[in-house]
Design goal:
This protein has 3 helices and 6 strands, in the order E-E-E-H-E-E-E-H-H.
Length: 167
């Protein structure tokens, strides 16, 4: 497989219980299959420690604005998404095979966001609660505006019918 960021040939790296494709001596990125990402994305997971420091070529500069092709599927353009509700690390995912491409250094940043799964759930709950509160406030303002408009419409209709039938 070729690296989707710098076109270097990906190398196989064995960790505790999985085999990962890494861009060693290239940009330092790594390819994780669908099930592998959840094994390395938190600080307390030992499998991810071996993947934090992949040897890079300092002369390779990666253009993060370019869309990337999936290294496994080769013809599928990967989608970009945030790794968590904190929206601090953007990663590439293949919509076809479900694999993940992490640029050099992204795994370390992802692992630093949450101590463990419990912290991730708490952050998700906070985000959803804040979003819900914001939506309630927004719709309350819109509802008041609609009520005012409805009152005006009713008054206009009432005057119209009184005009047609003054008795």
């Amino acid at each position: 497989m070729k690296c989707p960021a710098c076109s270097t040939r990906l190398r196989v790296k064995k960790t505790e219980d999985m085999i990962v494709d890494v861009c060693k001596y290239g940009c330092g990125g790594l390819w994780l299959d669908r099930s592998e990402y959840k094994k390395v994305d938190q600080q307390n997971e030992t499998a991810g420690k071996e993947l934090l420091h992949i040897e890079r070529n300092p002369h390779i500069k990666v253009n993060h604005s370019l869309r990337r092709m999936c290294p496994r599927c080769e013809t599928i353009v990967m989608a970009r998404r945030f790794s968590s509700f904190k929206r601090q690390v953007e990663i590439d995912t293949c919509p076809y095979c479900g694999g993940y491409w992490l640029d050099g250094g992204e795994l370390e940043r992802i692992r630093s966001l949450f101590e463990d799964q419990k912290d991730r759930y708490k952050a998700t709950d906070r985000y959803l609660s804040d979003f819900q509160e914001m939506a309630i406030q927004k719709y309350a303002k819109e509802n008041k505006a609609l009520e005012k408009q409805n009152d005006r419409d009713e008054s206009t209709i009432s005057r119209f019918f009184r005009f047609l039938n003054p008795f």
